[in-house]
Amino acid sequence: MPPPRSIPGTTLFDGAQAIKGYALNKMCYSFNSAANREQFKRDEDAYCARYGLNAEQREAIRRRNVLDLIAAGGNVYYLAKFAGILGLDVQDLGAQQTGMTKDAFKAKLVAAGR
Amino acid sequence: MARIVGAITSSHIPAIGKAIARNLHEEPYWKPFFDGYPPVHRWLAKVRPQVAVVFYNDHGLNFFLDKMPTFAVGAAPEYRNADEGWGIPTLAPIPGDQRLSWHVIERLVGEDFDITTCQEMLVDHAVTIPMALLWPGRDAWPVRVVPVCINTVQYPLPSAARCYKLGQAVGRAIESYDEDLRVVVIGTGGLSHQLDGERAGFINKAFDIEFMEKLPADPLWAARYSVAELVERTGTQGIELLMWLAARGTLGGEATAVHTNYHIPISNTAAGLMVMERRAA
After folding, report:
1. If you placed Cys at B255, which of B11, B22, B225, B276 could pair as Cys (CB 3.0 to 4.6 Å)?
2. Distance CA A55, CA A47 (A)
3. Within an 8 Å CB–CB cutoff, is residue A75 touching chain B?
4. Looking at residue A35, which CATH number applies to its domain?
5. Which residues of A are less than 8 Å from B237 in CB distance?
């Protein structure tokens, strides 16, 4: 099998990403539980330490930076649960990742329909 | 014998759940989307399905990366929805049909599909949102379900051709079932959208329109593309069109679209809806 072709601005969550991001994704998966979300909010350091995040992952969580979280092995479906804690919707995430304002990002989506 | 009354394919965008809960159907942002569904309600009232076989992709509610099946078939007495972590309303459990589930499982494995069987299975918005769109305002679900989950989380993903073949095999399984049952097949997800990366917000209207035009009569049109090529054309979450191909596969041969709706944007997504029936011989 040839490796997946490179798509600009896109990370396919393959085996290499799965290995790199396991601890981070496992922590984010735990955020399906409201009790776990509360524990994270009470003591973020302790919660990240319990899941064994590496320094890159810990820093990306601290900075709430989606592109850094993806680079650190984060998978969008689990990261969405972290975004839920922060009260961010998918347009907030899109705006952050594309360096646009939220209004500009939403206008871009509307423009795609024309 | 059981009979497939047709297939419905629909987006499953989480924001729809909030819009339903807040009754935003007539708001200008939502109206072009929700207006697609009353014709489907009328079609459902005509064909009166008793069971829905639902192809969907789990978004990290039931499955984690510790064990990630490519194809998983539900065999549970009921399917519960649960907290997904970002606050859409949790809907009532949906009754299962265990006897039909095991029949489908037997037939799929008999056709060399190495599936995972699930006697407990949480279903996320990819099942509940389309159900709420198709059967709105009910106290109890009017159909039993057999969920079939296709992995779109962990690459490698199954190819478009493989998902279509899975659908064909599920179709044969349903139609070899010994009970007189009317079965509707539902495929959820898509159409083009991408949530992650610098390319977030990617939508491809031209591809979606062509995909929907081809799906009834030439479903393998999309199977010319590899998964990576489909992601390139439809976005990282646009790959959910695999569910549409599986649902279309259950109808076999040629089909006709009896209803279509398409609207950009709902949330970050191009929202699509189709109802297909077998073309009468």
Report:
1. B276
2. 14
3. yes
4. 1.10.700.10
5. 76
